Amino acid sequence: MQTFKDALENALRLVLSLDANVVEYAQRTLLIALVSTLIASLIGIPVGMFIAERRFPGKRAVVTLLNTLLAVPTVAVGLLVYTLLSRNGPLGSWELLFTVPGIIIGEVLLIVPIVTAFTVTAVARTDRDVRKTALTLGANSRQALWIVFRESRFGVLAAVIAAFGRVVSEVGVAMIVGGNADEFTRTLTTATVQNVDMGNFALALALGLVLLAISLSVNVLFQYFQGGGHQ
Asked: What dotted CATH number matches 26-225?
């Protein structure tokens, strides 16, 4: 217990003093999460709205596939991206393996299904009469689609926030694709794993506290938007 107490005190001191390593890993983690979430949102939201608003053969199968991909192991995605970006892989000439852009590619592949599936659910829950009412009142198809988006915006934002939280907390893609290189690709999660292995519990605990703070903030936002902004 005394050992844990000392480690916790040292961890709090590292966090409150803005330790250089803690700040570096946190900044890199947030950069990767923000860029990945932005790219995934630009892909997933329009695709999700299309799936929700259109009827086409195989729609049920597509939705089922998206829901299945929500539970895909992060190490599986990391291995896939590693294979694509490795020297002998189809994208090896890009030289993105063990780089931040390489990690971002992996994270985007990981969370696009999250954004898409949650967007489908959010839009599908919107009153189906909204689109018909908008068209009846003279709106064109694009304007009607925008109205549907506005009505389901809290659910869509919840999808984006959930995807952001997934990136911040995952370790498989960051470790396999990034290689956990100090000063280049090390993130909060990979640094935590390494410091635990090295027995540096104070720093590992400090990184864990930062992760916990970020995760708590993400969950608070998620709950807020799930409640439609009324909670």
From this structure: 1.10.3720.10
- Beta carbons within 10 angstroms of residue 216's beta carbon: 10
Angle of the 74-85 helix axis to the 100-125 helix axis, nearest 10: 130
**pLDDT, one tens digit for every residue, the chain (231 residues):** 447 888 889 999 999 999 999 999 999 999 999 999 999 999 999 999 999 988 889 999 999 999 999 999 999 999 999 999 999 999 999 999 999 999 999 999 999 999 999 999 999 887 667 777 777 777 777 787 888 888 888 889 989 999 999 999 999 999 999 999 989 999 999 999 999 999 899 999 999 999 999 989 988 887 887 665 554
Residue 61 CB coordination number (10 Å): 9
Structure tokens that stand for 222 in this block: 């998620």
Residue appearing with tokens 């970006």: 85
pTM of the model: 0.91
Q: What is the distance between the alpha carbons of residues 169 and 95, in angstroms, rounded to a whole number?
A: 26
Q: Is there a contact between 188 and 26 (Cβ–Cβ < 8 Å)?
A: yes
Domain chopping of the chain, boundaries: 26-225
